[in-house]
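# nightly structure sweep
# worker-07 picked up a monomer target from the shared queue
# config: single-sequence mode, recycle default, output format = structure tokens
# input follows
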Amino acid sequence: MNTEENIYKIKIILSLKKLLEKGKNLQKEFKDHKIVYSYHGVASNALLRKATVNDTLNGNTMPKAVTLISIVEGMGFTMTDFSKEFDAISEEEVKLYLQDHT
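# output follows
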């Protein structure tokens, strides 16, 4: 995987993790919120295997577009929400991720 692809992969991971964390915070605010913000809950909502969600969020695989969309929507967010998170990730965040995961 070339450097640009690696940066995109990291930004995808960080964006999904930020959405997952936002969802967990929303869940605390709304008692009847039906989405469970765990890998298992997201996988169930997205109709994906838990291993697929796990591998994507842990950076083991680069998701196909359909998988990415399914995960984002399985968390109860839109691709617009995802793209805002993706665009907001700084080079510094990518560097920190690389330091922590090499």
